[in-house]
Amino acid sequence: MAKPRIKVLSDEEILEIHWRSLSILSKVGVKVDHKEALELLKSIGSEVNLNSRVAKIPEYIVKEALDKTPNIVRLYYRDGKRFIELYGDNTYFDVGSAAYYYMDYKTNEIRRPVSRDLAEVAKVADFLPNTHIMSTALVPSDVPEIIADRWGECIL
User: Fold this and answer.
1) How many Cβ atoms from other residues are within 10 Å of residue 74's Cβ?
2) How far is residue 110's CA from residue 13's CA, in Å, rounded to a whole number?
3) pLDDT above 80 (res 63)
4) 155, pLDDT greater than 60
């Protein structure tokens, strides 16, 4: 069976994005809203401003992190037994992108999703034969925002 392969950027364009990303990370930095993460970044050599919560991450830290990244990542199903392995240049289709708004299929109303909506989307995703993964497709508004992304994983 043929596997879909999507190539949107040339190798040169990919390298250009990589080098510019390294430049932005090291010169402009990234905002990190987690004190322990900022302290960790500082301890390994990043320039950290605790007031603005911005970390400037040098190229060598990014390179070391990429070198330590596994070639294969396993994502387990809800049953904890089955899994899908992500690797290489394979293409995987994911249901979801953390939507903050949802069109109710019964009323056509566009509104903030609730937990019930996420559960319904998960049921549909289970039956889609050409999808491999379901992330938190919707961010439910009926739970505290600080846990909304994790809540979806709990109710599925």
Assistant:
1) 10
2) 37
3) yes
4) no
